[in-house]
Amino acid sequence: MSEPLLTIRNLRASVDDKEVLKGIDLSVAAGEVAAIMGPNGSGKSTLSNVLAGRDGYEVTDGEVRYDGQDLLAMEPEERAATGVFMAFQYPVEIPGVVNATFTRTALNAQRKARGESAIDAIDFLKGARATLARLEMDEDFLRRDVNAGFSGGEKKRNEIFQMAMLEPRLAILDETDSGLDIDALRIVATGVNAMRNPERALVVITHYQRLLEYVVPDSVHVLADGRIARSGDRELALELERAGYAAFQPA
Amino acid sequence: MTPLRETVETVERASGEYRYGFVTDIETERAPTGLNEEIVRFISAKKEEPEWLLEWRLKAFRMWLGLEDREPRWANVHFPKIDFQEACYYAAPKQEGDGPASLDEVDPELLRTYEKLGIPLREQEVLAGVAGAGNVAVDAVFDSVSVATTFKDKLAEMGVIFCPISEAVRDHPELVRKYLGSVVPQGDNFYAALNSAVFSDGSFVYVPKGVQCPMELSTYFRINAQGTGQFERTLIIADEGSRVSYLEGCTAPQRDENQLHAAVVELVALKDAEIKYSTVQNWYPGDAEGKGGIYNFVTKRGACRGADSKISWTQVETGSAITWKYPSVLLQGDRSIGEFYSVAISNLRQQADTGTKMIHLGRDTRSTIISKGISAGRGQQTYRGLVRVQPKAGGARNFTQCDSLLIGDTCGGHTVPYIDVRHPGAEVAHEATTSRISDAQLFYCRQRGLDPEEAVSMIVNGFCRDVLQQLPMEFAVEAQKLLGISLEGAVG
Known about the structure:
Shape of chain B: globular
Distance between the termini of chain A: 39 Å
Shape of chain A: globular
Strand content of chain A: 25-35%
Mean pLDDT of chain A: 94
Strand order of the largest sheet of chain A: 6-9-10-3-11-12
Largest interface: A-B, 34 and 22 residues
Order of helices and strands of chain A: EEEHEEHEEHHEHEHEHEEH
Number of strands of chain A: 12
Radius of gyration of chain A: 18 Å
Number of helices of chain B: 13
Structural class of chain B: alpha/beta
Oligomer: heterodimer
């Protein structure tokens, strides 16, 4: 088997001088859906932010290889251009910028960085409409300002929409299921499943098992106190659902 | 390539440097340095003006002398005292005989300058161009004189007069005499008096009754010569039931000295007439230490003289070291409408004190003010606006929204609204917000693939959208790029 798409070795990171990630080891292969589960405060969001390159997270040790490259040495926009996408837990509002413009500008910025030609507005719109239909979203959505005045569910669906349009190779979904009702959860899951293919890896970060009923993971990893405490298959998620995280909490 | 497209791409290629800072090497005829009655006479003689206009200038000059040491000091801008005797009040590209009759007679060096600036002077290019090239007639003012006006003939067919004001003085004296100084009187303020005494050139527009001007009219102002000020005078008259959209653009070479630009713009809208006046101002802003740049001290005022008339100011102010400017509307006619849409950027060490005055005189008059101020670097920005409702202006309504966006923590944004209501039935609403570009917004954009400057540009353009939408299509695109460029280096 070839090298995994993503390899994390002994990753340590601090926020405000407090160590949150205490030596993470994890690899995710292309085509794999890896679920990372854990109690609140275990470092799930820190891990996704570190992978995406957000300021304020200091990596103190370890390395992250992505597609043969040193991911941590790259700027956030360079990571994006090489195919790293993060679906935000709290998507940000950008008043005055419509969704269609935002997403197309992002897509073309990435394409430009990869030396590809720009997608024109008409081709973009065609693809966007098809994606929206799949996500059961109204076309009107393209003309609305990015996340401004969106409900929680709409914001999360917008993340999935952007993911579908940007076609990343590594998608990190940071608690995408939080705050969703059952219908929205099903729609989001459909959107995520549509992204599954042998070239792409998905890292699904979640507190609950319920998203995994729809997006069935290939591997499940329990993050507790800044380390991967246990890894397994889908059964592990079901076990956590029954027994909770008590076994992994610091005494 | 169409000229406008070229402009956009020229701007795109710019990398944080002021792109228009070059100097055109051309022989210039100048007035002696300094300001006195002789200089006023010199300018008037150069332009072969009639006696009445010379007298008008001299009267203004005497008023200016009376206003000496009465420079406005209330604005929130700081600069060393200007020595008005050190400037040159007239500079013109040298030419043989009369002014150019057609573009073919214009000095090719000048045409190259405008080409470099991306200004579509060559009518044939615009005519041959695709839809995106726009339908724009241009008057190009180089230092103190107008060098070329395009599409004159086509406009004349509809009775629209669009020419340098010096030409209007010669060919349409009755109109100029009737309206010049009728909105901004000679003694209105220090800079207006100065302009009235020494104004050099500018555009004149008259749109006859019932005519919808078929194309955008545009003036492009360029300060080239060293040690000169530019004192242009623009007069636009929309006769009853007519409509016109006008745009001005400005650039200047990059110089270490400060140069003065003190323009006066007067608009007159008669009954049922509508004037839309847009400005994209990109004078040289000075460098990061505050050296050089244009002092932009401008008096712009429109009078809605007739009932149901409308005047709309839209401005995108990205340049100048100091901006002092309050495009205003006198709402004299009943049911007349005044609008002010503004985006102003202060980056580097730029200072801007800008806003508007809406003076409600007629019944059921309405005004809207949307101001978007963006401060970055060590820029300081003040919105200063006056809404006045006079005792006879029953049913007057105003809505004002002032939003400030701060980038970084070494800049400032200030809002100074004056509201003076003398009629109990008036409705005046003022909303103001101040926000910052958040790290979360920046990171969100970067995670999607935008570099920090693209991200700031996008967020700022979103912040200004309400105003940019007011610009004519072709110019909106250019303005968007300009906003991005003006803010380059604003984020680490």
